[in-house]
Amino acid sequence: MTNQTRPPRYLVGVDLGGAKMLAGIYDETIRRVDTVKRSTKSDRGPAAVIERIARCIRDVIDEADARVHDVRAVVVGVPGKVDRKAGWVVQSDVLGWADVPLVDRLQEAIGLPVLIENDHQLATLGVYTLELKSRPRRLLGLFIGARIGGGWLVDGNLCEGFAEVTEAIGHLMLDPKGPRCRCGGHGCFESLASRHAVLDQIHRAMLLGRRTVLEEALDGLGRLRAKDLFRAYRGGDALTCEVIDSAARWIRVALANLVETLKPEVVVLGGGMTEVIREALRDSIFRSGVEGHETPTIDDVPVWISSLGDEACLAGAALLARQHGEVNNE
Fold first, then answer.
1. Residue ranges of E strands in the chain
2. How far is Cα 14 from Cα 23, in angstroms, rounded to an integer?
């Protein structure tokens, strides 16, 4: 009888990506208990993906030897624009979704309270709490991966109005003569410094005859992995260093403009590409600019390079789930 009446004591976060989804189950102190990963298979459409999310959530609860009613709430980090109050994914180019009522459909599938939020917003919350110990009043998060986005916290609270901006950060126009972006523009931040941008530049150079140690790292589908880039950069491969150093300088330009506009107390850098080009980022953030571009200094604003990786979004989701549970229990 006691077990049936005890209050829920777990929180579940989901990091939903275009290629994979990762579910994590946490206790109320935001200690991760277990994780489960699945492929997303977004080409099958929203209904199939939502069922896969539900299965992933059930699996991670089972891996923790818990039961569904032991979970207070589930929060899903979505790559794109969301309407948190309505529970809809408004637009996600990564998933190929538009106007999908994710919360209602997922709640129906798993029988638990569900919230959704932009994944970069959640990652900013995760870093704020776990790494920065809830200290800065105004925190800007910038996440460099396959795409580029950001988060903005004031006094530890996610700024819902910033959700309109987070996906647009990747499409800041930095170089009008730059490469074409997936949004149709030219010289967007994402087309200059994202993982896709770096890999595209390397592939184009290889087709033109540039030699690189990365030729040996290509898999059967002609793909390169982040760890391949890291090894090549650390090894001094000329082409890799050239492309990554260029991306790092453009990150510095974008950061300088964001800092000038938002006036954060601390900037957090995260995402897969940040790990790959850690050394290059340090040099370009603190010492150099981009030739021909005047950029406001960011030397007076501390820049924190996060080491949380995927944990940032999952932990941020768990934190939001805990907040949601506290509000509902009042």
1. 10-16, 20-27, 32-39, 71-78, 81-83, 88-92, 97-100, 114-118, 138-144, 148-154, 157-158, 266-270, 303-305
2. 4
Which residue shows structure tokens 């794109």? 80
- How many Å apart are CA 306 and CA 140, to the nearest integer? 12
CA atoms within 13 Å, Cβ hemisphere of 157 = 5
The pTM (predicted TM-score) of the whole model is: 0.89
Q: What total number of domains does the chain contain?
A: 2
Angstrom distance (rounded) from CA 216 to CA 208: 17
Q: Say if residue 25 is in the same domain as residue 119.
A: yes
Q: Which domain holds residue 170?
A: 133-305
Say how many residues make up the chain.
Answer: 330
Residue 219 φ/ψ region, left for φ over 0, alpha for ψ in the -120 to 50 degree band, beta for the rest: beta
pLDDT digit string (tens) for 297-311?
A: 465 788 888 989 889
CATH of the domain at 25: 3.30.420.40
Please tell me the distance from the alpha carbon of residue 325 to that of residue 34, in angstroms, as a whole number.
Answer: 20
Strand 303-305 with 266-270, pairing: parallel
Q: pLDDT at position 296, please?
A: 38
